[in-house]
Write a structure and sequence with these properties.
Length: 223
């Protein structure tokens, strides 16, 4: 396992020969075709930066990554579980991911994964309406990857409902989902202005070339 000196180290996230990986919570099984690697009898899953935006952000040199062992996460736009499977590895059996997804068809695809990984709880709901799932507990982190025009507002609204004091958020901003006519840099600036009303910005990276025209923010709730 390399302790790559150019890369910041985070709990339960590994660089193996310059490739990002998480320790497989369910050894012997991969989730989206990613490679499994064994080191000293421990199994890791490579975390593909072209399939998962937090992985792309880590490759791009993110300096803050607030998810760790036992984290409680509210995940907006969990889809079929590619990224959440790695979050599930990182948080381990004592953490939990509440995964909101609006599409019933997509949600159905994550059900076998959630059956195996007990720390993923998929919820069919609209992330614009947190009152629909107001029963969930307070969380340490809200993660948003919903690709809708009002994604920053939706992140803030959910954070007001569920994020603990001093909690963190991360958001993948897809420039083209917000305004195709604007330059991505302009969109990132405008979203930053919105997010700064509620959060302090800890980190920002652009995800190109892994994800075209995407920016990634790491945020901390203002006290
Ligand atoms: C870019 S995909 C998410 C990919 C996923 N985060 C991953 O990395 O594995 C965006 C997802 O957000 C969902 N979505 C869009 N609008 C939503 C809403 N209002 N509430 C909840 N989910 C929504 C879409 O159905 C889609 O599955």
């Amino acid at each position: 396992m390399s302790k790559n000196k150019n890369r910041k180290q985070f709990e339960n996230i590994f660089w193996i020969k310059d490739k990002l990986a998480t320790q497989n919570l369910i050894p012997g099984k991969n989730v989206y075709g990613e490679r499994l690697i064994k080191k000293d009898n421990v199994e890791f899953r490579l975390w593909n930066p072209t399939r998962s935006k937090p992985a792309a952000a880590l490759y791009k040199g993110l300096n803050n990554f607030p998810i760790n062992k036992k984290s409680k996460i509210l995940y907006l736009g969990i889809a079929s579980g590619t990224t959440s499977s790695h979050f599930s590895d990182i948080i381990g059996r004592e953490g939990i991911i509440y995964g909101i997804e609006i599409s019933e068809r997509v949600l159905r695809e994550i059900l076998p994964l959630a059956k195996e990984r007990k720390n993923i709880m998929p919820i069919l709901a609209d992330a614009r309406m947190p009152e629909e799932y107001s029963w969930i507990e307070e969380v340490d982190i809200v993660y948003a990857d919903v690709a809708i025009p009002d994604m920053s507002e939706v992140l803030i609204r959910n954070s007001k409902f569920f994020l603990k004091d001093n909690g963190y958020a991360m958001i993948a901003i897809k420039s083209r989902s917000i305004d195709v006519s604007k330059k991505p840099q302009q969109v990132y600036k405008e979203e930053r202005d919105k997010l700064e009303k509620y959060f302090n910005v800890l980190d920002f990276v652009i995800l190109d070339p892994f994800e075209k025209d995407h920016g990634f923010f790491v945020l901390k709730k203002k006290s």
